[in-house]
Structures are given as structure tokens and as C-alpha cells.
Specification:
Blueprint (H helix, E strand, L loop, with lengths): L9 H5 L12 E3 L2 E4 L3 H12 L4 E4 L15 E3 L6 H8 L1 H24 L12 E4 L3 H18 L4 E5 H8 L6 E5 L2 E3 L2 H14 L3 E3 L6 E5 L2 E5 L4 E4 L1 E4 L12 H4 L3 E10 L6 H4 L6 E4 L5 E6 L2 E7 L8 H14 L8 E11 L6 E6 L2 E5 L6 H15 L10 E2 L11 H17 L3
Parallel strand pairs: 1-12, 2-3, 2-13, 3-9, 5-15, 13-20, 19-21
Antiparallel strand pairs: 4-8, 5-7, 6-7, 10-11, 11-12, 14-17, 14-18, 15-16, 16-17, 19-20
Helix pairs in contact: 2-7, 2-11, 3-4, 4-11
This protein binds flavin-adenine dinucleotide.
């Protein structure tokens, strides 16, 4: 089980070569053990190093094996919940703080790329267009844009009518959209591997194929055990997001998230003439459907992703649905084949927001990014280390007293299928 590799994806075909990290075969020491080698864990390690601590990352498979090596590479300031909904439920000040944290998260990614020279991540702030799949969705987008402008003073977006969205995307399927400049696209696995390289270069340790299996207490400290070794440490961070059910070491957070499968297909290389017709400004694009689908270019290939009732494993039927949706939106692609496809797990929480906090004095957690976590996991990894050091950052709605479990967790599989089917139905009937 622990030897399984990353799925063969476009990212794996084109990423910066991975640095080899050994398995843990010894009994060693560190200040902080970080469980999970995705953006949360890697960023936490970098923050620990900044504070003069010695971190060690335990990764069950390989660096970037989880969502961090498989995602769509759309970097943005967004949460799964809209800022206007947050303002309605929790007040304008809370929404303003959440907005500020979203921007801080985006800057965090930009700073890492600059500081550690991760040029292969190829981050470009080309903006994102949310494309309305019906009139009602377009009206809601325009309303949301007004609130964001009035409450947050944010003017860096443009409302596009159906014609302008058709010019931008090359598809006549949409009723309008919002172009937001607080977003970029990058190569997710190269970013991940770049962070790992920076951790190693600055004195952190990384062990791959080394799942944390359990902790024990030892003279006021912790010992984290793997199959063939252990690390004695003062503090532990759990950074396992949608992959929190691999071992009992992460039992305390397992029920805080529902792992939801999200899939991506990539076309074969397309002639440059196609990109004079579609996605000509090389942005990222997402739909307003509940079962959201999104698309972007990566070099001369088109990526199309989305969620559905994909279940625990990949299924040919689910990929076929995604491919059909891509061809419906872009009939221009009818002659071109899908060359790679892969999926990964996003971690959904009860209130659709990330969770960060302490399980006990020296054990922290940060997870539940709800499929919008590239920037936020990079930021919260840092804050999780600060919290372990006794700092009290203002993380608004994300800060929790303890991991908050999903009620009726044992019902999650049928619940996911039911919710997915219901959402698909509402999307189909234009609600
Ligand atoms: C298909 C897909 C598309 C996405 N697209 C986007 C996007 O375009 N934009 C965006 O912002 N977000 C996107 N996301 C979400 C984003 O990728 C995640 O929020 C982010 O990568 C979470 O990082 P993480 O480090 O918390 O978790 P992960 O990257 O999932 O890492 C968790 C790691 O923990 C390891 N692990 C688990 N248990 C143990 C154990 N016991 N011992 C040791 N290691 C363990 C796993 O092997 C895994 O590598 C997408 C996600 C998916 C799956």
C-alpha cells in the first residue's frame, strides 16, 4: 500500500524531477513532526525553520502524493463559501478578515516562489472567469460583485456579458461571467517539489514511504512511530487533509472531513490555431454549477476538471461524463483525444471552510480546504506552527477549539452520492 505512486497525470509527465527522500529506518529526534507531505506540511516545515526549529516531515507515499500533486493549479484568494454569504451570516468585519486572509494566502504562494526560486511552478496571474451556467446564476454573480465592491472596496474585477464570455472562452454556453484578477495558474507538482527542495536545503528532514502509524507519550514529549522507525519530538502537526484515514495516527481528525473525489482530464497537444479560438487569454475558468467544472490551458493542452458522484475509486463512466461535458462546451475539440486523466481527494467540511487549531497542547491540525486550498494550505501550514508556539493569530472562522466532526460520519458515502445526485439535478434544471 505505502509504495503506491502518484497517478500518471499531465503534472507528473511535465514536473521538475523529484528529489529522492529516504524511508525512516531509525529512531531520530526533531522539534516538530509534520504528518503529510503536501502544501500544508511543507509550508509548515518552512515556517518552523524560520523560527529556528528542526522539523521532520513523514509522508506515507511520496511528496505531493495527495491533492497537492494532482490539483488543477488554479491559485486564488477564494473560499468555497462566498464572502457575501459570510457577511450575511457572521457580519462584515468577519468577512473582511476572511478576505484579507485569502489575499495573504495568495501572497504567501508568490513569496515562496520568489524566495526559493521555484521558477518551474510557472505562476502567472492571468485572472479567473466565473462563467454563469444560467440567468439566475449570472444575476447572483453580479449581486456578489456589487457587495464585494461596496463592502471590501475591491474593484479588481469586471462583469462580462454573454458575448464577452464567449469571446474569452470560445464557448457560447454561458450567460455572462465575472473576470477576477486575484487569481493565477501554475504547475502544482513543480510548486510542491520546489517547496520540498527548500525544506531540505534549509535543514529540514523529509521521509517518504513512511506513514505515521501512532504516537506515544515519552517524558512529556511525543514519539511518532512508523513501520520501521520513530521520531521523538516536542510537537506534532497533522496535515493530511482528504487523506486522513490511512492510519490511526490521524484518527482525531478523520471525521472532520468528507473526502470527495475530484477528477481532471487533459487533451492531447492541440494546434496553436485552437487557442486563437478558445481560452485565448490563458486564464482559469470555472462554472457556477454546484457540481462545479473548470478548465484552463497548460502549454498546448486543455485541462478540464470537475466533481461528480465519482465514489471511492476512479470509474470510466465518471471520466466519460467529464469528457462529454468538455465536448459540449467546446465542440471545437471534437477531433482531439483525451491523453491523460487522473483524480484526487478534496476534503469537504461541514461548513465548507478550513479548520485549524490544537487537538491538545502539542498537537495541531490544519485541513478541510474544500477543494480551494492551494493558497490557503500554504498559508495555514505556517499559522499551524505559530499556534503550536503559543501565538494566537486571528484566523477568523477557520480557527477552531478542536476538530469539528461531520455529524453522522458513518453515513458519508451514501450522503455524498445523494448530495451529488441532487446537485446534478438542480444544475440540470437551471436552479
Ligand atoms: C483534483 C483536484 C483538483 C484541485 N484543484 C484545485 C485548484 O485548482 N485550486 C485550489 O486552490 N485547490 C485545488 N484543489 C485542492 C488543493 O489541491 C488542496 O486543498 C491542497 O493541495 C491540500 O494540501 P494538503 O497538504 O493539506 O493535503 P494533501 O496534498 O492532500 O496532502 C496530504 C498528505 O498526507 C499524506 N498522509 C496521509 N496520512 C498520512 C500518515 N498517516 N502518515 C504520513 N503521511 C500521511 C498523504 O499521503 C498526502 O500526501 C484540488 C484538489 C484536487 C484533488
Amino acid at each position: 500500500m505505502h509504495k503506491s505512486a502518484l497517478p500518471l497525470s499531465l503534472w507528473r509527465e511535465t514536473a521538475t524531477p523529484a528529489t529522492a527522500h529516504s524511508e525512516l529506518h531509525d529512531n531520530v529526534q526533531a522539534d516538530v513532526v509534520i504528518i503529510g507531505g503536501g502544501y500544508t506540511g511543507l509550508s509548515a516545515a518552512l515556517r518552523a525553520i524560520e523560527l529556528g526549529l528542526k522539523p521532520a516531515i513523514l509522508e506515507a507515499r511520496q511528496i505531493g502524493f495527495g491533492a497537492s500533486g494532482r490539483n488543477g493549479g488554479v491559485v486564488s484568494t477564494k473560499f468555497r463559501v462566498s464572502l457575501s454569504d459570510i457577511a450575511k451570516t457572521h457580519g462584515k468585519n468577519v468577512a473582511k478578515r476572511m478576505n484579507a486572509l485569502g489575499h495573504e494566502a495568495m501572497s504567501c504562494v508568490e513569496n515562496y516562489i520568489e524566495q526559493f526560486g521555484i521558477v518551474e511552478a510557472d505562476l502567472r496571474r492571468t485572472g479567473n472567469i466565473r462563467c454563469a451556467h444560467n440567468e439566475t446564476a449570472f444575476t447572483a454573480l453580479v449581486e456578489e460583485a456589487k457587495i464585494v465592491r461596496e463592502v471590501f472596496g475591491d474593484t479588481s474585477f469586471t462583469i462580462l456579458d454573454a458575448k464577452a464570455v464567449a469571446e474569452e472562452t470560445g464557448s457560447t454556453c454561458f450567460f455572462g461571467g465575472i473576470l477576477n484578477f486575484h487569481a493565477g495558474i501554475f504547475h502544482p507538482l513543480s510548486y510542491c517539489r520546489g517547496l520540498a527542495k527548500a525544506v531540505l536545503a534549509n535543514g529540514g528532514s523529509i521521509y517518504e514511504s513512511s506513514p505515521a502509524l501512532r504516537f506515544t507519550d515519552e517524558g512529556g514529549e511525543k514519539r511518532v512511530h512508523t513501520t520501521d522507525g520513530s521520531i521523538r519530538c516536542k510537537q506534532v502537526l497533522i496535515a493530511t487533509n482528504g487523506y486522513s484515514d490511512i492510519s490511526s495516527a490521524t484518527e482525531a481528525v478523520r471525521k472532520t472531513v468528507i473526502p470527495f473525489r475530484s477528477a481532471i482530464i487533459a487533451t492531447e497537444a492541440l494546434p496553436s490555431a485552437i487557442f486563437r479560438e478558445i481560452l485565448r487569454n490563458d486564464r482559469s475558468y470555472s462554472e457556477t454549477r454546484r457540481m462545479m467544472r473548470w478548465f484552463r490551458r497548460s502549454s498546448n493542452r486543455l485541462l478540464f476538471g470537475g466533481r461528480g458522484a465519482f465514489g471511492k475509486n476512479d470509474s470510466p463512466a465518471a471520466y466519460a461524463m467529464l469528457e462529454q461535458a468538455m465536448r459540449d462546451i467546446f465542440p471545437q475539440l471534437k477531433e482531439y483525444r483525451v491523453a491523460s486523466r487522473w483524480s484526487g481527494l478534496v476534503a469537504m467540511t461541514m461548513d465548507s471552510l478550513p479548520q485549524i487549531g490544537l487537538i491538545e497542547k502539542n498537537i495541531a491540525f490544519s485541513l478541510g480546504y474544500n477543494g480551494a486550498g492551494i493558497a490557503m494550505s500554504s498559508l495555514l501550514g505556517r499559522y499551524a506552527i505559530d499556534i503550536l508556539q503559543g501565538k494566537q493569530p486571528d484566523l477568523a472562522l477557520m480557527q477552531r477549539q478542536k476538530p469539528e466532526n461531520i455529524p453522522f460520519f458513518s453515513m458519508r458515502a451514501p450522503a455524498v452520492r445523494t448530495v451529488a445526485a441532487w446537485y446534478q439535478l438542480l444544475d440540470r434544471f437551471g436552479r
